[in-house]
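User: Fold this; tokens only.

Assistant: Input:
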Amino acid sequence: MDDASASDCSDRYNRIHSIEEQKRAAEEIDLPNVLRSAAQILLQHGAHLNFGISLVHRHQDLAPNCAMIHSYDAPGSDTCHMERLMDVQIFPQAYHLDRDGFLPYEYSFEPTHIPEAPMLDELAALLRREDASELIGLFHIKELGALWLERPSSHGNGTTATRLPQGNTLSSDIIVTEWIKTRRSQIRKGDYTS
């Protein structure tokens, strides 16, 4: 990746609101209705097998020429950390809606599916109509069938998401940041803010 593209990654990410700001903004719209409608769009296009719906947010500012990279070093663990981009191939992991369409803002070193344009167009129209264009995005699903909890790293340089053991429930202080829609159920991924 050249320096101009890497610079675009960090600039784009740094314009995204913090999780606390996004939580407040989500309270201003009919979020359950937006999520239901967005999930229907994913289902109609068959995209629910590869993508979930996310609360677009950032946890920190990125340094120039860096991007947030997801890595899956251990089963049941997703670490998202800042990494300097120099001659590496990265793949979109999460997308937010910009005035020109959906753009990636988090990445992975592993290949991911690319969302199809008709689905993105329909989703963009919904989000703009519902005043949720800066709030709701898409993420690439790594693993179906589990609740995940995302926590800021102790070093303040990213987050780690781990599977919630089956039978456990989310506490009320969790901010839900990702929704996966299957034909039978909806699975959520929470996000601790402390």
